[in-house]
């Protein structure tokens, strides 16, 4: 369990916390837990999410197990800076969908004395670093990596495998489109997918010409 620990209370700077991992790992659940603790402490909290995330609710940040907290959908990272006045804590969900300016925005807010809590996928469906998340993790004071359970092996899962053939980087979905896989299961699944797309049709070899001495 993450517990923030500020020793020098005279220091007026904030900090950045990043919660990351695969799909179905509990990132949003942990984000909501931290933000609700801040609300219980009577701190002013604002939550933002990308406007493209409309899976459960247009205005609520909702975890897979239906916990929710009210949020403000925004089209770009710059909007967060404009709407974060007089806040003690800023929460940001699905940060991987924001533009790269989200890194500057989070650091600017932290430098103003605001606690910034960010949740997002660390890797896309191909296993590559996702959008601004690597830079956010690099500049954050605290990084928490959570894990799902692999649907094929039962081991810890840190990959989000896409079960559909859609190659778009951004594809909102749930268990019908994605499943969490361990490293071994993800490697095998990607290998099977690659083999399945290979053209294994053998080219016809022309008959060997006979010379006059045969």
Describe this structure as you would to a colleague.
The protein is α/β, with parallel strands linked by helices and 214 residues long. It has a domain at 15-146: Rossmann fold (3-Layer(aba) Sandwich). It is built from 5 helices and 12 strands. The strands form 4 sheets. A 6-stranded parallel sheet has the order 5-2-6-7-1-8, with helices on both faces. α2 (77-83) packs parallel to α3 and α3 runs parallel beside α4 (133-139). The longest helix has 15 residues, at 183-197.
Gist?
The protein has 214 residues and is α/β, with parallel strands linked by helices. 25% of the residues lie in helices and 23% in strands.
Number of strands: 12
CATH architecture heading of one domain: 3-Layer(aba) Sandwich
Outline type: elongated
Note the main sheet.
6 strands, parallel
Please state the average pLDDT score: 85
Q: Helical stretch count?
A: 5
Order of helices and strands: EHEEEEHEHEHEEEEEH
Key traits:
single chain, 214 residues, alpha/beta, Rossmann fold, 6-stranded parallel β-sheet, two-stranded antiparallel sheet, 12 strands, 25% helix, 23% strand, elongated
What's the helix and strand layout?
Elements: E1 15-21, H1 27-40, E2 45-50, E3 60-62, E4 68-70, E5 72-74, H2 77-83, E6 89-92, H3 101-111, E7 115-121, H4 133-139, E8 142-146, E9 148-149, E10 156-157, E11 159-162, E12 178-181, H5 183-197
Parallel strand pairs: 1-7, 1-8, 2-5, 2-6, 6-7
Antiparallel strand pairs: 3-4, 9-10, 11-12
Helix pairs in contact: 2-3, 3-4
